[in-house]
User: What shape does this take?
Amino acid sequence: MLLNYFYSEIVVRDANILVSAWLWEGNESKIVELVENGIVTGCISLQLIQEFEKFMNYPKFKLSEDEIASAIGF
Assistant: This one.
């Protein structure tokens, strides 16, 4: 559809969406895929990245330092 060519949705993500997208397959990971594929525009901030890093360091996720660094660099 021609309208879709000129129109893009803007998605404001929060840290919970990013954590869920990184750790599990589901709707949250589909949102991130839409951003990666340029179908929607994702908005993030330094505060969001810092909160994401804090969440990824939670012991319950049992992530290595390399896994966390990879997620933050994503």
Q: What stands out?
A: The longest helix spans residues 46-56.
